[in-house]
Amino acid sequence: MTAKPSRRTAITGGLAGLVALPMAISGCSSAEATSHIEEHGVAPQPFAPSAPIKVAIVLYDGMTALDAIGPYDLMNYVPNLTMQFVAISADPVRTDSGLLALTPTNTFADADQPDVLLVPGGPSAATMSKNPEMLRWVQGAAGEATWVVSVCTGALILGGAQLLEGRPATTHWIAMDALAGFGAQPRPDSRIVRSDNVVTAAGVSAGLDAALWLISMLRGVDAAETAQLCIEYDPQPPFDNGHYGSAKEATRADAKALLAHALKR
Amino acid sequence: MTAKPSRRTAITGGLAGLVALPMAISGCSSAEATSHIEEHGVAPQPFAPSAPIKVAIVLYDGMTALDAIGPYDLMNYVPNLTMQFVAISADPVRTDSGLLALTPTNTFADADQPDVLLVPGGPSAATMSKNPEMLRWVQGAAGEATWVVSVCTGALILGGAQLLEGRPATTHWIAMDALAGFGAQPRPDSRIVRSDNVVTAAGVSAGLDAALWLISMLRGVDAAETAQLCIEYDPQPPFDNGHYGSAKEATRADAKALLAHALKR
Q: Where is the DJ-1/PfpI domain positioned along the sequence (chains A, B) (predicted)?
């Protein structure tokens, strides 16, 4: 199924009159009762093909690399779209393992105002959701951005910036309760949730699905499908334990133990 | 379907007597006539749980970040497994967009001998497939490694190191002819191909599927499923144009044009 214009039909009433429009998307998904994308409220209009799109991807110590790199590598193939990797300082950030360093292209002080603000998650996201420098910049950038997007526990940073109050939202399954603490309405069975111009994606790899969908909203379905083919995004996971709701109990316990360890690194 | 021991049954005869054992894996895949994983020859035995596993991920200028970061972020959650990012020099490498820099942890001169050698692809892979420093190190490391793995056009570097002669293999769809030039037998409809201990994955995002499967071979299916849940790898692509064989003609043309541009960057 491709995104149809009708999916972006405005629902009147704003946040107070939110109407749930859960939509199952087919693609690679198996037939399940849960929806994989939810849309609420009014979506921004697509950009004109000639209009440049500026994307800011926030970097910080303790983030999860794939949360940022998945969307980045898809958006690489969108014409007339430029990206900046933006951080508190110009120093390379250490991703969650402590092994991989990513170098920002800009600091908060010299970054452009983005059209699309993308906030990745990671074990340190809960800490970052209280960091004044982070919150000040995210709030300012989000206020002027056309789209505000989080991947994984990046939603906690949006929550800390008071961008999720009253909004349906999703995050990594391990942080669903923390998300509720910011006044959001957790949607553990949706891989992508859009509430007006605020898009939240589930854990880590959900950034690929969210970015692909976002490209269709920014530049149309054809542009999204071209980016999809460029990175050959035709997923064939050999196992079926990627969703908490359907994962085996033993897998859940092992994953919780590993993630608890990650939180302490 | 989970990997069964029988899938690793040795086929006698070595390379000269290769027996094709194409196996469709279910998971998220749609029902198609093509197989998504092919296995040939003899697979290495799993490591004992107590045996440390060393992984080397090769970095180089002009590589595609996601080819490396997908597998890295899954392997982050494998107990008793350590990784090094290895490059010709200690300088940060510029990934294909020129925007994102990744910092090696080791140079070829000081890297550990890996148990698993992983070579990502990118627009510069064809050039790197002729780089003497790259080929010397890859050949040496591959000779002692238990597993040799490529993602995307990383297969061309394995080809340049003469590791694919006579072997069935896959790569990004745009490089399938180039792969044949190294004496490999291209498998455009397989997302993952194993020929003895040499594993090749299709374009970019296929590294996630390959790494997940590889973890099951290294440490068993339970470890793979736990890593899968940690990164919530339950893909739901909203569009279905990720495979060249089934992509629309217009999408193919657009993707070729974009990738040709990438090759010139």
A: 54-214
Q: State residue B238's pLDDT score.
A: 93
Question: What pLDDT is stored for residue A261 in this prediction?
Answer: 76
Give the closest of A152, A202, A241 to B228, CB-based. Answer: A241
Asked if A258 reaches chain B (Cβ–Cβ under 8 Å), the answer is: yes
pLDDT attached to residue B78 = 95
Q: What is the mean pLDDT of chain A?
A: 87
Query: Is A257 contained in some domain?
Result: yes
Instruction: Give the CATH number of the domain where residue B173 resides.
Output: 3.40.50.880
Query: Is the CB of residue A32 less than 8 Å away from at least one CB of chain B?
Result: no
Does the pTM exceed 0.90?
no
Does the predicted interface ipTM exceed a cut of 0.90? no
Count of structural domains within chain B: 1
**Closest CB from B27, B65, B240 relative to A72:** B65
Q: Report if residue A82 sits inside a domain.
A: yes
Contact B239 A251 (CB under 8 A): no
Q: What is the DSSP string of chain B?
A: ----GGGGPPPTTTGGG---EEE---TT----SS-SEEEESPPPPPPPTTS-EEEEEE--TT--HHHHHHHHHHHTTSTTEEEEEEESSSSPEE-TTSS-EE--SEETTTPPPPSEEEE---TTHHHHTT-HHHHHHHHHHHHH-SEEEEETTHHHHHHHTT--TT-EE---GGGHHHHHTTT-EE-TT-SEEEETTEEEE-STTHHHHHHHHHHHHHH-HHHHHHHHHHTT-----SS---SGGGS-HHHHHHHHHHHHHHHH-
Is residue A250 within 8 angstroms of chain B, CB to CB?
A: yes
Q: Is A22 a member of any domain?
A: no
Q: Which residues of B touch A210 (CB under 8 A)?
A: none
The per-residue pLDDT for range A135-155, each reduced to its tens digit, is: 999 999 999 999 999 999 999
The answer to whether residue B178 sits within a structural domain is yes
The confidence score (pLDDT) of residue A16 equals: 32
Residues of chain B with pLDDT under 50: 1-35, 265
